[in-house]
Amino acid sequence: MNDEQKKEQQRVDLVITEIKAQQILVDDQLNKAHQETRAVEGNYTDNASINTFEIDDASETNAEVQQQRQLVARVVETENILKKQGATLKALAQAPYFGKVDITEAAQPMSLYIGLASFQDKQQHFLVYDWRAPIAAIYYNGTLGQVTYTTPSGARTVQLTNKRQFTIENGQITNMFDTDETVGDEMLQYALGQQSDAYMQNIVATIQKEQNDIIRDTKHDVLLVQGVAGSGKTSAILQRIAYLLYHARRELTADQIVLFSPNRLFSHYIADVLPSLGERNMRQITLAEFLDARLEGLNVQSLFNEYEINQIRHVPTALNQAMESVKLVTNLDAYVAQLAPTDLKFADIYHVDQVIFSAYHSRIIFNRLSPKLSIGERLLQTKNTLIKELKRKLAHLAESAIVAKEVNQLTVDEYQALLGSQSAFHDLARQQAYAQKQYVYKKYQPIYDAIYNNYFIDIFKQYAAFLQYYGTQIGQNAMLAAKEETFLTELEYHRIDLQDAVPLLLLRDMLTKNGQNREIKHLFIDEMQDYSLVQLAYLKHAFPNAKLTILGDMQQALFRTSTNLHFLAANLKTLFKTNNLATIVLNKSYRSTQEITNFGKALLEKGAAITAFTRHGELPVLLRTGSRGCLPVLLELLQQPTQQKTTAIITKTQQQAAMVSHQLTNAKLANNLMTATDRELKADLVVLPIYLAKGLEFDRVIAYDVSAENYAKPTDAAIIYTIASRAMHELVLIADGPVNQQLAQIDPSLYRKLIVNK
Ligand SMILES: Nc1ncnc2c1ncn2[C@@H]1O[C@H](COP(=O)(O)OP(=O)(O)OP(=O)(O)O)[C@@H](O)[C@H]1O
User: Fold this and answer.
1) Are strands 685-689 and 752-756 parallel, antiparallel or unpaired?
2) Which residue is closest in CA terms to ligand 1's atom 18?
3) pTM score, two decimals?
């Protein structure tokens, strides 16, 4: 250890001593807070379940319950804050910081240390600055010399005289070096050389400049990021969320941020990053889950299912284009604008088998409203009238003899459940009336929900009518008539194609001025290449107040033919009606070794821009089998010892994955087959189709059957590229017979080819 390192270690020791002293204080406060929470909770008689149908006067006036609730919420919050402080201190006690900048400002030199969170001593001196603090931007962006950083009160310029990086483990500096680079290679080498983990790690110590631009952008309404495989898009999303939460602590909470992720495995994989940065996770959802929730009762086709079907069925390109382009959105707008009231399709509202509100009745209400109002406004008023009518009907029904009889037949528990928190009535007649009212409300809640959700409009018929309109508008009557027929047939089986789900929802929302969540302030869409423009338009519509960060890689287009960034940016400006859109391109790939990245990029027609981070490993291996097929070769490979911790066998389809997994199990090789419903990678050897491996990474990847037969289409090379780019350290490809055409054409020096089982 040289003198400089000794000096730095002394400082680390000092800071850790301070941290430990504060840990003792926080632990003590936490103990006290915990006791208080338990005492308050003990007093709290839990009962106040609030009726969503109509908040009863009685429960509204129950001030005591409200007060108790607030008290519980307050003590729980105090405890949570202390827990969070405790967790932060624990992390800092292991590694208080990872970076240092020496700066001079107004002839005053100073050294600032950057870590996971800020830490101050008793005199309020900053011993560590949070990596998100304005001054920390220098660490990520600045090269030595004059540097400027942004603060809430404007730009400040200082002289950066030195930049130092540390690796600190268990309180000991294990590595330390000075650099003029933004964040130098050595630390990154170390970070990237690690074995893969079940959870993604945070990258705050080694954020690269261009990633930092994404993380710290607060200027734009839409940030569009095209980043090659492994360039840190997902990492950028997560550190950006942490950054935004830190900077808008008062206005923004994690619940106001939504991330659309590609699948459930991915959601689990990234679940630890924000907690490791001391922040709560944002909301996460897949497009399929989002659509399912909005089209209750229908089986919405998933993207995966669409992909699997497209492997065997030919869908006309013209239809795909018509259903996924901006044209569809503009035509939906035009359709709604020109709709005459007589074009509206109303529906009966049923309870069990009985029509409660007929389509005819709803139409009458609608027709009575002033034609000067827009259709959306008239539908809203129709809805309100129906709700009022329902309430009147129910009030009347609640007093009927038949309901009195039904309530009297309830068990004691059922009756008590109706009374809920209102069990202390002085007057029996009032109690009975209350119970009867609750009873009918509960029974007819589905009707209320149906009206609330606009089921008095037959949105399916309306959408079918739109398809006809659209066919005429784009001169494709026959094609759209065929589409309409498939749509109606699927509907009979309670199914809806993904291609129809989104325009149908858009139509519903446009007509009823509904379906918008105004609370969400930031929307993140990962794997943007998997979304059609119509779907992106719908998400923007669903979250009108959200700023958007849209990231992906056009080259990893599994589900649709890829577009280019400029085309996408131009269309998004039109669709989102904004010019405040910035595009950022990330061309450096960090995940894989240089050998794997160079091999992967050679598969792409437009791969030239991809640059590999310099971390070396073995050349990828292509195993060409003879007549025995891929499986015996795969088995032999898996039986050989390996240094890699995790191995993924990645196939093109779920069916292939199931077959491979089954055969491995027969051969007594423990493995885990992943399906779309799985949330967690459970073993070190997994078998999965490529679309479930999106966003994930493994130490070793085995691409199963990259033959010309299995990967026959010219666009299939993108699938092999996506598979290859999941590998961090080792890549093996197996092909039975001639290999995929693009693969056959790449420079043979980029991989080792072995012919086995001749
Ligand atoms: N600045 C960095 N420091 C350390 N590791 C990094 C950095 N940037 C990226 N990585 C690592 O590189 C890998 C790929 O990152 P990430 O998954 O965020 O990329 P991506 O662009 O979303 O990839 P893909 O599109 O292929 O799924 C991860 O292991 C991540 O931790």
Assistant:
1) unpaired
2) 232
3) 0.86
